[in-house]
Amino acid sequence: MDVFKNAAVRAFLLTLAVLAGGLFLGQWTGKAVYAQVQAPYEGLDTFTRALTQIQVNYVEERSTEQLVQAAIAGMTDALDEQSAYFDPESYARLKEHTEGTGSGIGVTVQPSDDGLLITEIIQGGPADLAGLVGGDLLLAIDGQPILDWSLEKVAKRIQGPRGSEILLLVRRKGDALNIPVIRDQVHTSAVQGRLVHAGLGYIRLEHFQRRSGQELLDEKARLESLSGGKLQGLVIDLRSNPGGLLEEAVIVSNHFLDSGTIVETEGRLGQATNQVHTATAENTDTQTRVIILINGMSASASEIVAGSLQEAGRAQLVGQVSYGKGSVQSYYEYPDNSAMKLTIARYLLGSGRHLERGKGIEPDHLVALDSASAPRQALLDALADTQMDAGERSKLVALAQALPAPQRAQLSPSFEGPVSERTGRDAQLALALELAIP
Predict the structure, then answer these.
(1) CATH code reported for the domain at 191-368
(2) Which of 328, 305, 100, 101 is nearest to 203 (CA)?
(3) Average pLDDT score over residue span 93-99
(4) Fold annotation for 103-185
């Protein structure tokens, strides 16, 4: 009996030990898994405490939504200069800009002493269909005078639900006219082309929005038709083009290249970010002489086009060193219609070169915007030489200070007026047109 009891006790203790060991092991494993899950979010306890203390103690009331949005914006700002957070309103405007569509009336305006002067009407847009014309002076919107309004306030008031009506008071040749306009989607092209003369075309690409690649090819075909055949030379103006959609840049580059790597992207997300875009021989123009204009505000997608064609020997570049943005961003949308733009990859040109801020693409022909600023620019470039002794540097500084500083108009190209008339004030454009014809 005692033997049986002892055996039973040992069995019970063994079972208890196994059970306790299992419970301990399960608890330890659970804690380990929990720790792994929680590791990326260790700081959330501090964040929650800070959020609560701001809401309770800050001198002015702030909603949770406001504070969380500010926190996300702060996080993205700390990553790099391209990552950013957009609240619902700013993200909606961004999508309209990227897609080239928006619910509005299709006009371009500029401030004047008495109101806003309508300088351009988008053909086929709501304003055009309603009878507005360039030169009309906008005085009031829905009965409210706009003389003291900012351009941003005017833009917000003009935008509205598609199909809704807006009443515009305009002055035309001394007559006041009330013109009702029905808001609708407006497609704004980023491509503008001109036939300089037979055989020579000029195309300005403002940014790489949806359809920009095909629109550039269509505009090139239109200029060829006007010229009566293939163009001998084509100037593509990418100055002050901040970039945009990568796939649109690939379309443009692919049209002028029949082989080789256009651009390669590298990131941490496998196939989603590691891609190679290769040129194909389909619908390729290898005959037209291509000159590309760039400056310090040419970035991202515009640098892909300029860099890929330069490296392949397919185009000559004229202007100033480009911005140097060798990164790819993706947008993550949230249920409240806000979004985060996050850098997910870096891109490499066909040679394997990665562009960095301050180390952009160097043009084949480095040219100041106008001849008046060239001497001063040459002196300023010389001052960057760190090997120069103090005496030489002081002389150059004195010379640079004596020369007139370029005006704002000289620092940023003007795209107004006929191409032939702009060459007198735009040395970069003048040289590009000269080089475009063999």
Answers:
(1) 3.90.226.10
(2) 305
(3) 73
(4) Pdz3 Domain (2.30.42)
